[in-house]
Structure formats: structure tokens, C-alpha cells
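Changelog note: in this version the structure field was regenerated for every chain. One regenerated record is shown below for reference.
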Amino acid sequence: MEKIMTKLHDLGIVALPIHDRAIVEEQYSSLLEEIMIQVYEKEMNFSPKLKIAS
């Protein structure tokens, strides 16, 4: 989660981390999903299954 939060911070996006998820403004939800997938794939070497809640 630290790498995800750092990437968001570097883009000027405020996020609230909660265990294995993050809350961002709705306009950034797609970007958050993209970043989470990229970081997860890099660290775990396979694609995650994400559940998106609004």
C-alpha cells in the first residue's frame, strides 16, 4: 500500500488507506485502480481481482 500511496501523492491525489484498500475522490477512482493493478502485478507477478465500490 505504501507504493500506491506514494504514487498517488506524487500525482497530488489525496487518498485514505484502509488496510488493503484506499479511498479517493470519485474522479480518481480509475487511476487508483490502474495504479493498484500495476503495483500488485509488479510485486506479486500476477493480476489481482479488484472489487470496486462506490
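Spot check on this record: Residues 31 and 42 are 17 Å apart (CA to CA). The chain has a mean pLDDT of 91.
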